Amino acid sequence: MNTPISPSVATQIRKADHIRICLEEDVQFQQTTNGLEDYRFSHCCLPELDHNDIDLSTTFLGKQLGAPLLISSMTGGTPEAGMINRRLAEVAQHYKFAMGVGSQRIAVEKPSVADTFAVRKYAPDVLLFANLGAVQLNYDYGLDECLRVVDILEADALILHLNPLQECIQPRGDKNFRGLLDKISKLCSTLQVPVIAKEVGNGISATMAQKLIAAGVKAIDVAGAGGTSWAKVESERAENPLQRRLGRTFADWGLPTAECITSIRAVAPTVPLIASGGLRHGLDVAKALALGANIAGLAMPFLQAAASSEAAVYDLGEILIAEITTVLFCTGNATIKQLQCSGSLEHIK
Hints:
- This protein has a single domain (18-347), classed as TIM Barrel.
- It contains 14 helices and twelve strands.
- The chain has helices at residues 7-24, 79-95, 105-109, 143-153, 164-169, 180-190, 206-214, 230-236, 241-249, 257-267, 282-291, 300-308, 310-331, 336-341; strands spanning 39-41, 58-60, 63-65, 69-71, 98-100, 128-133, 157-162, 195-199, 219-221, 273-276, 295-298, 345-347.
- Helix 4 links the parallel strand 6 and strand 7.
- The longest helix is centred in the last third of the chain and has 22 residues, at 310-331.
- The chain is globular.
- It catalyses: isopentenyl diphosphate = dimethylallyl diphosphate.
- Involved in the biosynthesis of isoprenoids. Catalyzes the 1,3-allylic rearrangement of the homoallylic substrate isopentenyl (IPP) to its allylic isomer, dimethylallyl diphosphate (DMAPP).
C-alpha cells in the first residue's frame, strides 16, 4: 500500500521535475513563435557615436537598473534550485539586472526551504520580485501569505502569476479561477509593494491587461508564447493518458510575445511593461524594447547557464549586454530611450 505524500513534498517533487524536464527534454513551442522574427532593425552604416558612450541603464518601478534585463522567475524550494538562485542573484547584482524567483508557495507550506529563495544577501541592490500563483488566493491564501513571501525575499514587488492552462494539465492542478480579479484588486489596495501580473508562457491580451491595470496591478509581464511550453512540461509529468494528451494538444497554445507587447501598448501606453516569453538573446531583447516594453525577461538561457556553472551565468550576462549594445550602436542610438523613439524597427511581414 502506497503511503500518501504531503502537499509540501509533492510541491518539492514538482519543482525538481520542472528543472529536470526543462533542461533535459524538448519542451519548447514548435509552431508558435514569439513573433519577433517579423521585425527587423534598419541598419545605420554611420552611427555618429562612440561605442563607449552607449548607456544601457534604465529605471523600472522606481529602481535603477544597469541594463533593461530581468532574470525571469524560475525556481526555488530544492537544494539544486537554491544553488541556481544564488548564482543568478550574484550575476544580477554584478550587472544590476532585475530578478524574480519561482513560485514561493512551497516556502509557505514548508518554511524550512525558504532559504532557497532568500537571495537578498547575494543581491543587496537588485530589483527583486517575489512570486505566488494568483489562483492561490482562492485556496486560503491572502494578505498574510503574500506578505510572508515578500518578507522572505525582502522583495521590491510581488509577482502574481496567471497559469490557467498549466493548472488544467498539471496533476491535481488548482483550477478554481472564479472571482480572482476582485481578490487581486483587494490585495493591490492593501499590499505595501507593487503587484505585477505575469503569465507563464501563454500571453496576456490587451483586454486582460486593461482589467488587471484597473484592478490595481502596477506592471504587466506579458510572458507570451514562443519559448518554453508549460503544457509540454506538464505532459512530461503526466500521471495518466488524459493529462499527457492535453499537454500535447495545447503545446502551442497562446499569444505570441510580440503581439502581446504591441496590443497592450496600444491600450495602455504608460503601464510598466515586461516582455518575456521565448526571448533567447540580446537582439530579441532589443526588438521587444523597441516595440514598447520597458525591460525584457529571459528564463531558459539563464537556467541553462546557472545549471552549468557560475562562470556560464556571468558569460551570459556579458553576452546579452554586448548584443544589446551592438543593436544600439548599429541603429545610431546611444540610450534605450532613444532606441524606443527612433522608429528603427520595421515590420517586415
